[in-house]
Amino acid sequence: MPSGLAAASPLLLLPLLLLPLLSPVRAQTQADDNSNSARLSSAIRRLTQNYDNRLRPNFGTKVLDIGMEVVIASFDSISEVNMDYTITMYLNQYWTDNRLAFDIRNANKSMTLTGEFASKIWVPDTFIANDKHSFLHDVTEQNKMVRLYGDGRIIYGMRFTTTLACMMDLHYYPLDVQNCTVEIESYGYPTEDVTMQWKNGQSAVDGADRVKMPQFTLEHFEVSTTTISLSTGSYQRLSLIFRLRRNVGFFVFQTYLPSILIVMLSWVSFWINHEATSARVALGITTVLTMTTISTGVRSSLPRISYVKAIDIYLVMCFVFVFAALLEYAMVNYTYWGARAKRKAKRLRDASSGNNTRGNCSGDFIDNSHSGVDLNNQRMSPIIGLRIRRLNQQLHQQQQQQQSEDESREEETSIQSCPQQQQQQPEPPPPSSVPVYPMSPHVPYISRPGCYLGASGSGLGGSSGGSGGVGGGIAGVGRSYLRQRRVTAGSLGGGGFDRRHQHQRAAAAVIGSSYDSGRCRSGRECRASRM
Questions:
Q1: First-to-final CA distance of the chain
Q2: Topology with regard to the membrane (predicted)?
């Protein structure tokens, strides 16, 4: 056998020699553990064997003090419509029950038990006064625990999610600050039996600085203790108040900025021609409907409250600006076309009464042919078009009345207007040599030797012939339809009469009156004289 192997053999055999000595130690440790478990189990059975969980600790002797501690896990949601918020938190309650003291010499010695043990001992009837709906988490086991100390101190903790009522003041919405509370109190024990207090004051609340919310910012929190007097007695209430400030960034991009742009867009109509009715009306209606949609979206996320909010004032003012831009166009359109219609109607009345008709032997005359164009423009107006039929009827009646009056004064007017030229003009050719041209009854035309009168009335302009030519009314429709024409003596052939005849027909068609080719205004045949 080698010398090295011979030296290592005693070292390999040493653990085998010590193994019988270690077995009693391991067995003693396991026995001690079993003994402790058995002792604690025996103590728990002994404690609960004669324990009445219907009676509070210190019953009939002194008031029981209960300490509260809250750990905020998260703020889940805040609803303005329902006036509530949802929060997940840990609630720990501290009190002392001498009936459960199992080792007074080791007061700090504790044992943690499952939530099932809570059903065997007395626990406070704590509830949340402003609770709407709550549930205890049970994944993977029910989130409850009981920690029992040797001197009888108990910690009872649980994790739950609760929806709490929060009466919000929305006068300054969305630039508002809300105060939401958690109100904890005993349901059945008045202050003569149980008093509650925050454990370690402000330090009783933990986790608030880690809370993150998309809509609000938690500025700070505070705790308070009040006494509530009810018909069944006075109860102590612990309040935890959260001060929440609303984040305005969401409303800037969803409400304020779009509404500002819509108002500015409505002002674009001021630079659009007022005669572009379709463009301005479409722009105004679109902006009004868009503002209505924005207002509806904002109100859908708010409760139906009666008082006025800051966002309501802002949206109403934006709607007023948009609506005023649309109303401005309506006023401009009515003022423009209405005033223009009144002026043109007055001109037509003056023309029908003969106030603007003047005779002139020198061949000059006053042109009122623009009345036909003005009447045509009035017919194109969306406002005056509703009354143009009545206006035409009035004008037709005035023309008929004026026609009867002019027939009686026709001969006298023609003689007085041209006394000298009547003597200088040669005798007209025989009636058989001059062709007869029928004329509209709305054209007051007088044919006298050497006399030329311009006709004015019913929106028709007058035209005169040159010296020695034929004087007569050539119907003109406005400044944009016919120009003032002078027919000289040498140009009034057959073609000249045809053109004049066509102008008369066009004028009669624009005014809307019938073309009567069977008679003249004077009741005689209208003849043209040639030089």
A1: 169
A2: Multi-pass membrane protein
Starting at the edge strand found earlier in the chain, the sheet holding 126-128 runs 126-128, 177-186, 233-246, 216-230
Place of tokens 């037709």: 396
CA distance 488 to 465: 6
Question: For residue 527, is it left (φ>0), alpha (ψ between -120 and 50) or beta?
Answer: beta
Structure tokens at 475: 């119907």
- Where exactly does CATH 2.70.170.10 map onto the chain? 64-247
Which of 266, 263, 256 minimizes the C-alpha distance to 314? 256
Tokens of 248: 């305005």
The pLDDT-based confidence of 322 (bands split at 50, 70, 90) is very high
Radius of gyration of the chain (CA): 54
- Residue 517, pLDDT score: 38
**51: its two tokens:** 């324990």
Alpha-carbon span 484 to 458, nearest angstrom: 16
Assess whether the previous peptide bond of 429 is cis (omega < 30° from 0).
no
Angle at 15 between CA 10 and CA 16, to 5 degrees: 90
Tokens in use for 118? 């809570």
The CATH 1.20.58.390 domain(s) of the chain lie at 251-337
387 residue type, one letter: R
Instruction: Name the CATH architecture for the domain at 64-247.
Output: Distorted Sandwich (2.70)
CB atoms within 10 A of CB 439: 28
Q: Which residues of 175-199 are buried (b: 16+ CB within 10 A; e: fewer)?
A: ebebebbbbbbbeebbbebbbbbbe
Q: What is the pLDDT of residues 145-183, one digit of tens each?
A: 999 998 889 999 999 999 999 999 999 999 999 999 999
Which phi and psi angles does 103 have, rounded to 5°?
-155, 90
If you average pLDDT over residues 224-240, what whole number do you get?
A: 93
Q: How far apart are CA 512 and CA 509, in angstroms?
A: 5
| Fold (topology level) of 251-337 | Methane Monooxygenase Hydroxylase; Chain G, domain 1 (1.20.58)
92, 98 in Cβ contact below 8 A? no
pLDDT category of residue 414 using cuts at 50, 70 and 90? low
Of these ranges, 46-55, 212-221, 270-279, the one predicted with the greatest mean pLDDT is 212-221
Structural contact between residues 499 and 435, judged by C-beta atoms closer than 8 angstroms = no
Collapsing DSSP states into helix, strand and coil, what is residue 281? helix
Distance of CA 117 to the CA centre of its chain: 58
Q: 269 near 331, Cβ under 8 Å?
A: no
